[in-house]
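Human: Note token order:
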Amino acid sequence: MFLILFLFCFKAHAQTVYPPDIAEIKQRDKLIVAMTAFDTPPFYGGTINNMSGLDVDIAKKVAKILGVPVVFNRDATSFAGVIDQVVSGKADMAISKLSITGPRMNVVKFSTPYVRLHQAMIVNRLWLSQNTKNGDQETTIKTFNGSISFIANSSYDTFARTSFPRAIYRPETSWDNIVNGVISGKYSAGFRDEFEIKRLTMEKPTASIHTKTVVFTDSVDNIAAAVPPNSTHLLTIIDHVIKNDYNNIEVKNLLSMLKKYYDNNKE
């Protein structure tokens, strides 16, 4: 009788009691991670069953600590849609080259940033020349009043309206449309992060003939993962992974990752 009681107590003691957010993932036996439907290398890209990239690696390490497989939810057609996946409970976390913004902080919790970028823009050279007085291009940019394009429902939709109150806003569906629009003069400028601007100079060097690059060193774009407000223990795990393995990745590292991503995905 004593032996049976002892074994019962030992078994009861041995059962692990998980916090609610972790228990739900364990019970489901999978970590659901939200990303956009479109690829954003070197952060993420590929098919559902063959994903690769920086964000994918972070998600997989989090899942490994949890002891469950990772499943990528790529239903969102915009970055705002990725946040909605987390808010609605359709994903445990989102890691999709997400910028921390004020409106987003009202509905989700963000991890420690794993990439910190400066905001930047490409400006049509002809527009800049026609709108600059006495060679003072810095003032022309600071008081920018031309048409500025950015990806709709992205963080730069928010950033542009805050930083350039006198501008004419022209949201677009893709970065390629924005770049082509600035080159042709359809838009005065295109607004995004410095990595995408430097990537453009690497992949499309002829763009510099018609555009000038401006990097705002006093404006930081923090890239982080997002979780629901009550997922505090999951957030602790994500922060641990970032602080140990992915802390302060620089633009030069991203450009190197991008080259490797393309090399690995050649047909």
